Amino acid sequence: MLHRYVVQCVLPINLFNEKIFIFIWFWFAMLCILTVTSALKWVWNLAFWPAQVKIAYFVTQIYLIFKKKDKIINLPTASVKN
């Protein structure tokens, strides 16, 4: 039986896709490991008193920095009279 059509080989495309999916798989595995490590670090820090004090101090300092920025931004508009 003689076939009158030509079938293109898709093997090179599959090899290229395989390389991309292997890279994506390792990228997601690395992100998963980093996420779990970060979550465990937060749980560890929140479980012990000195870390809780450090976190509270850090959050307070950030609040004060933003509060000062708000005052600096609001000062010129508060001093302008219509």
Tell me what you see in this structure.
The chain has 82 residues and is an all-alpha fold. The protein has one domain (11-77). The chain is built from two helices and no strands. It has helices spanning 11-47, 49-79. α1 packs across α2. The protein is elongated, with a radius of gyration of 29 Å. The model is unreliable at 72-82 (pLDDT under 50).
How is the main sheet built? none
Instruction: Give the total of domains.
Output: 1
Query: What is the average of the pLDDT values?
Result: 79
Strand content: under 5%
**End-to-end distance, in Å?**
94 Å
Q: Which ranges are low-confidence, i.e. pLDDT below 50, for 5 or more consecutive residues?
A: 72-82
Task: Please state the CA-atom Rg, rounded to the nearest Å.
Answer: 29 Å
Summarize the structure.
By secondary structure, the chain is mostly helical. Helices cover 83% and strands 0% of the residues.
Walk me through the topology.
Layout: H1 11-47, H2 49-79
Keywords:
single chain, mainly alpha, disordered C terminus, 82 residues
